[in-house]
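Feature request disguised as a bug report, sorry. It would help if multi-protein outputs had a clear separator. Right now it looks like this:
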Amino acid sequence: QKYWQFLPLGPSGVADCPYTSYSSIAGNPYLIDLDLLIEDGLLTAEEVSAPDWGGDPDNVDYAKLDESRHELLRLAADRCRKRDADKISLFTAENAGWLPDFALFMALKRHFDMLPWTEWPDEAIRSRRPEAIAQYRALLRDDVERFCCLQYLFFTQWDALKAYAGEKGVEFIGDMPIYVSLDSADVWAEPQWFLLDEFNSPVEISGCPPDYFNEDGQLWGNPLYRWDAIRADGYGWWIRRAEGAFRLCDVLRIDHFRGFESYWAVPFGEKTARNGVWRPGPGLDLIRVLTSWFYDKAFIAEDLGFMTPEVRKLQLDSGLPGMSVLQFAFDWRALGSYLPHALEENNVCYTGTHDNDTLRGWLDSADERELEFARAYLGLNDEEGLHWGVIRGGMSSKAVLFVAQMQDYLDLGSSARVNVPGVAEGNWRWRMRPDALSPALAEKLRSMTARYGRAPYVPPYPVEDDTDDADSGGADEAETA
């Protein structure tokens, strides 16, 4: 197992969604390891164990986190600021392109009761007038410094984790959403790159058109880009954003890649995505800038969704591997291209994504026609386990990389689903139990990965020689076998 893929790691905003983050570069304070803070002397075991973190080991309780974690992190940050002031100052200087604005943005949100920045009562700071910036930096200095310190703690821990994984031969696959949230430091600090009116309201917002899965389409609500201004600037904003993303990972998945060819633009104020229009994206121009600037890095094109010949041509011309999802492969409404035998080598095959049900949930609820075809195509059977049969199908494909959600390896049902698109609450909560992994599962993964040529074959156990030395080969032959 050579890669670990995860969702965006930024500080989550609305509904705790990682795709609506307050920053495209900052790290989420929820992911700071409190046990490591204890080891570092910034918290005590008693302080960490005192709060009520919720009673469900399978799901994050965000309400409990909001009650307790912020206060613990404030305590740790204040101690860290006294002890490591020079290190924090150096970290802030090294990240001057984004951190001061982000820290001030978060301090301002706290000051204005977490209102979106477009609703802050002081128009001067909404518009980032220099005198207002200076005034609030002085007024909110303590909070600004705390937010800088929290990012120092996050990246100190993450850098250590990434280095440890690298020593083990494991690379990280990160996720870069094509859009950023309107209520983010990105848009507040650099509104010139976004399609806003004179009142900082979006002119048009993001979404995707109606299809056979959703008759109203999907209304995402992100502000769209001023591609003409970004292009004239040499795509500097995108370069800085990708640079921040690559600090967290080794390979970068570009979310909604088809939006680089053309994107669905919906007039601001619409209640559904029905009345949008297609507008041309930056195309190969931006892709070439990113791949040449980060010539020693790898990208994955998330090319799912409404495909056209033009999108397909962009993906082929880019040279980036696309994506395929096995749960879609057997859908009688869109049959064909995702079947394992039809996958190209320059492709990453998934059992499902964060927007899909788990394999077990899908097997329990899919259309009978889909399941009948999947059973026949993959030879699914109860003895092997239906979910293992689907995983086997992905493993045996020609795709350069195969990825399965942890829930699918563990055969968890729909209660472990990460996200239900279009549902506002109850998402992004699943977590794996500490005792979920086992040597038996590791061995099953190892043997299957080797069987399909995705890892060198290594015998699971030492081969014992039961022959006499007089037999041909003896122990030497047994060792070779």
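(second protein starts here, but nothing in the output says so)
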Amino acid sequence: MPVIEELDTSLKQLPVSEAEDDKPERSVNTAMTARAWLQSAVVTVVIFLFLVTFVVQGFAVSGSCMEPNLRTGERILGNKFIYRFKTPARGDIIVFSYPRDPRRAFIKRIVGLPGETIEIHRGQVFIDQRPLVEPYLIRTPHGDFGPEKIGKGNLFVMGDYRDNSRDSRDWGELPIKNIRAKAWLRYWPLKRVNVLD
């Protein structure tokens, strides 16, 4: 308070000529402030567009094929950049363009890699005749499939809720080039925010 009172007093005592001289300086300061804000806004938009184009993208989950790990209505961020530095790995949750209609995006988990032979007996997945440990499965799956050797440049993907998932068992292998992003972060709903494995 004392500082403001002293400032008010000193401003009141300025001669008229000095107060008028201060006006151009104020307009210069206002212009500099406006310019700084504009530059910050432009930089922010450029960074946002770069991130959305090359690094991350938001997706809304629809359908029950990944339940209970991912539920309808949840929102996730996908890392679009990661597979430029590493190859897709078994267990990764990926968002991809559906091979039969590339305009549609699906989300599944990578189960089989190029060159491997996949087989399913009574819901148990075997990779090259060895049982696959899948700690992310909550519900016990059923059904049989294969054996099938996964082609070069392709992946075998399935939903976590196997009995309610249309996936590579139905429509075939997924070309790696169809991957849009690796699911990275669930950000909605807030009570389920977490990094996705």
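Even a blank line would do. Unrelated, but nice: Helices lie at 2-12, 16-55, 168-171.
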